[in-house]
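A favour, since you know our structure tokens better than I do. Could you add the entry underneath, on a fresh line?
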Amino acid sequence: PSELFDRMLVAIGLSRAEVCLATFTTARPLGGRITPELEQTLAPLARHLVALSAPKRVLIMGAAASRALLG
């Protein structure tokens, strides 16, 4: 998986050294899906992390992370 991500970065002219990776959850939830309750709890934390890092661009991958950051 990380090799694919590296190739994706190269395709858009970036390297791992130029990006900050952050996960929406620190552990995979039971059942593999993030519950709406957990999503509501983690959303403010995810928005705070983005605000602290002040990125020029944000690439959001996954439905739960998209909902958390974009509403």
